[in-house]
Write a structure and sequence with these properties.
This protein has 151 residues and is an alpha+beta fold. It has a single domain, classed as 2-Layer Sandwich (Alpha-Beta Plaits), CATH 3.30.70. 40% of the residues lie in helices and 16% in strands. The protein has a four-stranded antiparallel beta sheet. The chain is globular, with a radius of gyration of 15 Å. The two termini are 16 Å apart. The structure holds 2'-deoxyadenosine-5'-diphosphate and magnesium ion (MG). The site of 2'-deoxyadenosine-5'-diphosphate has 9 residues, from loops. Its cofactor is Mg(2+).
């Protein structure tokens, strides 16, 4: 079941620009299940760890500052192939290359303020979920609509 979970975060610009509702709505409409959700001011320490793979990139410090410039909404979504589909729903890293219909294609213009984060693989999803959430904060439950979404 862990392979069916992804970590999604609405970045500070997305929260300030009131895109939380629509992002949640699109994941819900698609058929994914919300199992974790919190509004929080992320510490630089957490963000440095979160973006550890980019630690040697020139944009790393700016990225960590941007991500700590206001609260983020951290979420865990569950469903079949949710990591891959979540990335498709997000669009490309650079909003210029993101198609309309994707969050980045619809909501933003530059890479440095690209509204949303989503795990890029099942392994990063597992790492990011355990970094941002305690096990007790995740609500596993039987979804009443599952039989209408899955065979
Ligand atoms: P993604 O968020 O699509 O997974 P990533 O993991 O490669 O992209 O990079 C993390 C974030 O860092 C990305 O959302 C925006 C920023 N970023 C990436 N590449 C950048 C670059 N070349 N210049 C400035 N910011 C960049
Ligand atoms: Mg990434």
């Amino acid at each position: 079941i862990a392979a069916r979970r992804t970590f999604i975060a609405v970045k500070p610009d997305g929260v300030q620009r009131r895109r939380v509702g629509e992002i949640v709505q699109r994941f819900e409409k698609k058929g994914f299940k919300l199992v974790g959700f919190k509004l929080m001011q992320a510490s630089k320490e957490l963000l440095r760890e979160h973006y550890w793979e980019h630690r040697n990139r020139p944009f790393y410090n700016k990225l960590v500052s941007y991500m700590s410039s206001g609260p983020v909404v951290a979420m865990v979504w569950q469903g079949l192939d949710v990591v891959k589909t979540g990335r498709k729903m997000m669009g490309q890293t650079n909003p210029t290359n993101s198609l309309p219909g994707t969050f980045r294609g619809d909501f933003c213009v530059i890479m440095g303020k690209n509204v949303i984060h989503g795990s890029d693989s099942v392994e990063s999803a597992q790492r990011e979920i355990s970094l941002w959430f305690k096990e007790s904060e995740l609500c596993e439950r039987e979804g009443c609509s599952a039989k209408w979404i899955y065979e």
